[in-house]
Amino acid sequence: MAYDVPPLPYAYDALEPHIDEQTMHLHHDKHHQTYVDKVNAALEGTDLAESPIEDVIADLDAVPDAKRTAVRNNGGGHLNHSLFWESMSPDGGGSPSGDLAEAIDETFGSLDELKEKVNTAGANQFGSGWAWLVLDGDTLAVVASANQDNPTSKGQTPLLGVDVWEHAYYLSYQNRRPDYLNAWWNTVDWGVVESRYAAARS
Ligand code: MN3
């Protein structure tokens, strides 16, 4: 069972003006496809080739030494981008509700303070990486990861992540990563994040 790039759950131009159509084509069709091709090549013929990518990335120690770096980078890329596409929507933005909204207020003070923390983590990530809202034990936290590392490799559950690789924003925002981060919040599908939060706690 080789991995596939999941189809985008909306049109390529659906996230405009926040994320432009050309970026979505390159990012989804080219960058994500490359991660999938490379992780498939790395896992071909191993026992792990049949495992869900979530399980593989959650337990990188189980990957043979010679394959581990390729799987960490490219399998991580596949998992991160799969989560990323799903957590955006042309009807995104606004606020979470229910238990997640309560937990955000309790942990961070307010949604605005959470956004501030994620934006800071993303802006300060040197080079390429991601900023995340995670569930760590039973506590929400904001973390950054380098390259294509996923928080699940550290035992945290990713609830929402934003890609801060230049390929995610450079065509529209050039060097203005903070402007991209601010705009990206308008795409967040909080319903998906709420579902991940509920699943992680059950
Ligand atoms: Mn990317």
Fold and architecture overview:
The chain has 202 residues and is mostly helical. The chain has two domains: 21-86, Helix Hairpins (Orthogonal Bundle); 98-201, Iron/manganese superoxide dismutase, C-terminal domain (minor pseudopilin epsh fold), CATH 3.55.40. It has eight helices and three strands; from the N terminus they run αααααβββααα. The chain has helices spanning 21-43, 53-58, 65-86, 98-108, 111-124, 170-173, 177-184, 190-201, and strands spanning 129-136, 139-146, 157-163. The chain has a three-stranded antiparallel sheet. β1 (129-136) and β2 form a beta hairpin. The longest helix has 23 residues, at 21-43. Bound molecules: manganese (III) ion. Residues 27, 31, 81, 163, 165, 167-168 line the site of manganese (III) ion. Manganese (III) ion binds at residues 27, 31, 81, 163, 165, 167-168.
Short description:
This protein is mainly α. Helices cover 50% and strands 11% of the residues.
Q: Give the termini distance in whole angstroms.
A: 28 Å
Q: Looking at the structure, what is the overall shape?
A: globular
The first-level CATH class of the largest domain is given as Alpha Beta
Order the strands across the largest sheet as they lie in space. 2-1-3
What helical percentage do the residues reach? 40-55%
Contiguous uncertain segments of 5+ residues: none
At the fold tier of CATH, the topology name of the largest domain is: minor pseudopilin epsh fold
| Whole-number count of domains | 2
* Count of discrete alpha- or pi-helical segments spanning 4 or more residues: 8
Element string (H = helix, E = strand): HHHHHEEEHHH
Bound molecules: manganese (III) ion
Mean pLDDT: 97
What's the alpha carbon Rg, rounded to whole Å?
16 Å
Q: Main β-sheet: number of strands, strand sense, barrel status?
A: 3 strands, antiparallel
CATH architecture of the largest domain: 3-Layer(bab) Sandwich
